[in-house]
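Now for a typical sample entry:
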Amino acid sequence: MSKIVETILKHSHEPLLDKVLLSEEQLQIRIAELGAQITRDYHGKDLLLVSVLKGGVVFLTDLMRHISVPHSIDFMAVSSYGVGVRATRGQPRITLDLNTDIRGRHVLLVEDIVDSGHSIDHVLRLLASRNPASIKVCTLLDKPSRREVYVPIAYLGFEIPNEFVFGYGLDLDEYCRNLRFIGTVKAEYQ
């Protein structure tokens, strides 16, 4: 058991938290704005929201409540990190693929964070090969200082500094996804 998991199980997330980077209120205000923008942009189009699991599901759930045009959802899972790993290996693999045929549909890929760009680039290339009408990226967080691969982000929640973050879908060794805010991890736990 890692030092992080041990701490979480004994004391919750609080000893690991350096600071709250984005409060629940900040998150919800921006997500409502994104939902309104997406609603305007996809009026009259066959919209499919694709969430990248596991981190993107919390963002997707709140975002879709603010999108008033008809849409459907599906899920993918991509692995590029493992428990205890803090940097991408640069070789993502699809561990869960879509159940939906995306041919001719307007796909909006909903992601929790774009970091190096490798995972999202891999997913975009795969989905583009399936002939959607369009494919765009909506990410809650963007860490441009870590980018190794270009990612065209159409809808952005927040640009953040190169800090290790958790909460609101983002995990600490698979824990703390349920927090209503996004916080940074103290240096000794990174």
Summary: The CA atoms of residues 76 and 97 lie 5 Å apart. The beta strands are 17-22, 47-53, 71-79, 93-96, 106-114, 134-142, 153-159, 165-166, 182-185.
